[in-house]
Write the C-alpha cells for this entry.
Amino acid sequence: QVQLVESGGGSVQAGGSLRLSCAVSENIFNFNDVGWYRQAPGKERELVARINVGGRTFYGDSLEGRITISRDNAQNSVYLHMNSLSPGDTAIYYCRATILSRIFWGQGTQVTVSS
C-alpha cells in the first residue's frame, strides 16, 4: 500500500515561510506525478503544485509566484516551499501521488497563517 506522509505544517504569521515535506513509501519514479493540494474550510480542494516524473512542474493559480515545488529522488520526497504567506493560505495541505488512474492521498498537514 502506497503511503504518503506529510510534515512541516504549523502556525506562522503573515509574511512568513514554511516548507512542507511529503515522504513517499515507494520509488518516486513509479508515479506519474506527485504534488500538493490544499483545502480550506468550506472550499473545494485545489491544486497548489505538482511535479511529474520528468521533472516538469505545474502550479495552481492561488500561490503561483510564492511557492516552489522540488523533489529529492534519493529520499523519495517532494517538498513545497511557501513564502509571503497570508491568512488566505490557511488550509490543510495534502500530498497526492498518481499512477495512471490510481490516486493516493496523504493524511494532510495543517497550515495556519495569522495576521
